[in-house]
Amino acid sequence: MTLFDTHCHYECAPDEITASLSRAAEAGVGEVMVVGGSQTLNAGVFAAACPALKIYRAIGWDRDQAENAAALPALDYTGISAVGEIGLDFYYPGASREKQISLFSSQLELARKLDLPVVIHTREADDDTLGVLKEIPSRGIIHCFTGSPGFCRKLLDLGFYISISGIVTFRAADNVRESALVVPDDRLLIETDAPFLAPVPMRGRENEPAFIAHTARFLANLRKTSLDNLAEITTGNARKVLDAK
Questions:
Q1: Of 210, 191, 69, 81, nearest in space to 142 by CA
Q2: Neighbours of 88 (CB within 10 A)
Q3: Dihedral through CA 167, CA 135, CA 42, CA 142, nearest 10?
Q4: Helix, strand, or coil here: 240?
Q5: Where are the beta strands (DSSP E) in the chain?
Q6: Rounded mean pLDDT, 178-182
Q7: Rounded to 10 degrees, what is the CA torsion of 81, 85, 87, 91?
Q8: How many structural domains comprise the chain?
């Protein structure tokens, strides 16, 4: 059994990153995508190294960079598997809708130019996310999905893969569990979103890729399949979306 954590972040020293990834390998993780989004997170992507597993890398500029988008430096996408994370988040009051949409759109256009998939964050921004994606057709991953089953179906209709995080194990996350049952086998992914959102039974601890096994086991039980089968389909799907050209 090989697990694939399709989304984790690092903002720590290189030796700590290697130690974290080594623990993941010991826990049955064979592949990981380390994801950027800011200057420090992008640096963590390039610092990630571990001979015990395969590392995919995603870099880009997330919604928190929208206020200073004009000053963002160009990034070197050599050897990069995806553009991300990028997207929209209107959860907090005062979020700049127009600036976020502008940055999101430019990142999607860049991914199209580079022929790379995207890693999208969307929260409290269903209509705008769908609107931008219909205007700029793209391929890739909706990471850490927390929306409704209806929103999930619309994203699936646009061809996206849906990644389920440890939130699916949270007591109050009925909508995530309902959405996780909507996703067909050939579009399902799993992730930690480390260092955030540690799954039950690791709540209260800093999340890390090794904990993906807890999410995978919970999701396998939810979908009434075996852990081995869930690992096989999610790992295969991750390879497909990230290796496709």
A1: 191
A2: 25
A3: 20
A4: helix
A5: 3-8, 29-37, 54-61, 82-89, 118-123, 140-142, 161-164, 188-190
A6: 98
A7: 160
A8: 1
- Give the single-character DSSP code of 169: G
Per-residue pLDDT reduced to its tens digit, 67-115: 999 999 999 999 999 999 999 999 988 779 999 999 999 999 999 999 9
- What percent of the chain lies above the pLDDT cut of 70? 99
Give the domain range for residue 87: 3-243
183-226 pLDDT, tens digit per residue, is 999 999 999 999 999 999 999 999 999 999 999 999 999 999 99
The domain that contains 52 carries what CATH number?
Answer: 3.20.20.140
The residues, ordered by sequence, that sit 6+ positions from 38 with a Cβ below 8 Å of its Cβ are 61, 62, 64, 65
Query: pTM value?
Result: 0.96
In the sheet that holds 29-37, the strands lie side by side as 3-8, 29-37, 54-61, 82-89, 118-123, 140-142, 161-164, 188-190
194: DSSP letter:
B
Secondary structure (H, E, C), 19-81: HHHHHHHHCCEEEEEEEEECHHHHHHHHHCCCCCCEEEEEEEECHHHHHHHHHCCCCCCCCCC
**Type of residue numbered 34:** V
- Terminal Cα-to-Cα distance of the chain (whole angstroms): 26
